[in-house]
Amino acid sequence: MSARTCIAVDSSCDLPAQFIKQHNIEILPIYIRHASGRQMDYRNTKSMLNFYQNHSRQQFGLAQSEPLSVDEMTGILQQRLLPKYDLVQVVTVNSKKSELFKRVSEAAMINEPKFRAMEKAEPGRQPFRIRLYDSMSMFTGHALLVYELVKRIKIQQMPINRSIRAIDAMREEVYGYIVPNDLSYMRDRRHLRKADNNISWINFKLASLLNLRPIVQLHKGDTKKIDTGKGFWGAVEKLFEHTRRQIQQGLTSDVIAMSYGGVLDEIRDDPRMVAFRDYCRQHNIKTMLSMMSMTGTVNVGPRAFTLSFATDKELVTA
After folding, report:
1. Which residue, 135, 160, 152, 144, is CA-closest to 19?
2. Which segments in the chain show pLDDT lower than 50?
3. Which of 127, 21, 112 has its CA nearest to residue 74?
4. Contact in structure between 239 and 179 (CB atoms under 8 Å)
5. Cα torsion 276, 278, 281, 283: sign
6. Residue 306 CB neighbour total at 10 angstroms
7. Relative orientation angle of helices 100-110 and 112-120, to the nearest 10 degrees
8. What is the dihedral sign for C-alpha 34, 39, 41, 46?
9. Is residue 111 helix, strand or coil?
């Protein structure tokens, strides 16, 4: 891939910081409105650590995420991307869950004449192009598709058009899972949930009484509860076992992406996490573990866990 070509994602894409830096991935920020005002989620590691170490229900309990305006997105395109790149391939969060895809598309169309004028002012430069792709996923599902795109472009040296077609074929094979931790957080926010009014997969009162946590599956924009576990780690262990069985069935990606809505030191060395990653390694499957975006956490609650894989085989039942 040419140095004048880049991949851009919105900040809700749960990729590890090192992966973003290594592959020069550009981040499109998202606003978070909370009780103390508004801040921007850039997936900046220092800001994320501060967010998790100082997270409070009072400040973030009713926080909401929102994409930048068309004018603000225009500023990013003109000031940050156009000077450095000729082609920007944007991979966005599911467009049914966020208006970010729409905002970037509108900014690109509105500013087409300005882009052409700026090109003419620089004799010899290539036309500036921006392409959008809807991942139809969230959290680590979004990240898994970006990993596959990077692998094809940078490692397999595939042209970007062929690479996009390849991940397009994989897009419907991506299954994501969420294990929420703080059910009261989700209960208090149920009137704020965007494009997803179906939250019947949790009986908050009963789940809290029995210390149950649901395992929620995300696939092609739809959500459904597939199982429950006793406590947070009980649910995560059930999800790990579900994933082990799916590995035995066969995956179409050589990576499993995971994220956690907190400081990674809280789970990275837990024996259950270590055992699962060892199992994956023994089966030639890589694992990526990242902090969940601030955007993701204000929507599903702190200390939640997500995991995604891709398969074209029959999905194992819980």
Report:
1. 144
2. 195, 197-199, 201
3. 112
4. yes
5. negative
6. 27
7. 50
8. negative
9. coil
Distance of CA 16 to the CA centre of its chain: 11
| DSSP secondary structure code for residue 263 in this structure | -
pLDDT digits (tens, 9 = 90+) for 174-212: 999 999 998 877 777 665 555 454 445 456 667 777 889
Q: How far is CA 305 from the centre of its chain?
A: 12
CA angle 180/277/280 to nearest 5° reads 115
Report the number of secondary-structure helices (H) and strands (E) in the chain. Answer: 13, 13
What domains are defined for the chain? 5-171 (3.40.50.10170), 173-310 (3.30.1180.10)
The residue length of the chain stands at 318
Q: What is the pLDDT of residue 304?
A: 97
Q: Terminus-to-terminus CA distance in the chain, angstroms?
A: 41
Residue type, 248: Q
- Integer Cα distance of 59 and 72 in angstroms: 25
List Cα–Cα distances, 209 to 9, 181, 183, 206, 230, in angstroms. Answer: 39, 14, 11, 5, 11
The residue written with tokens 């702190």 in the block is 302
Could you count the other beta carbons within 10 Å of the beta carbon of residue 251? 21
H/E segment holding residue 271:
helix 271-282
**Backbone φ, ψ for residue 6 (5° rounding):** -140, 160
Find the helix or strand (DSSP H, E) in which 76 lies: helix 70-76
**4 near 86, Cβ under 8 Å?**
yes
Backbone angles phi, psi at 18, to 5 degrees: -65, -35
How many angstroms separate the CA atoms of 303 and 245, rounded?
25
Model pLDDT for residues 3-35, shown as the tens digit of each residue: 899 999 999 999 999 999 999 999 999 999 998
Distance of CA 40 to the CA centre of its chain: 16
The answer to whether 144 and 172 have CB atoms below 8 angstroms apart is no
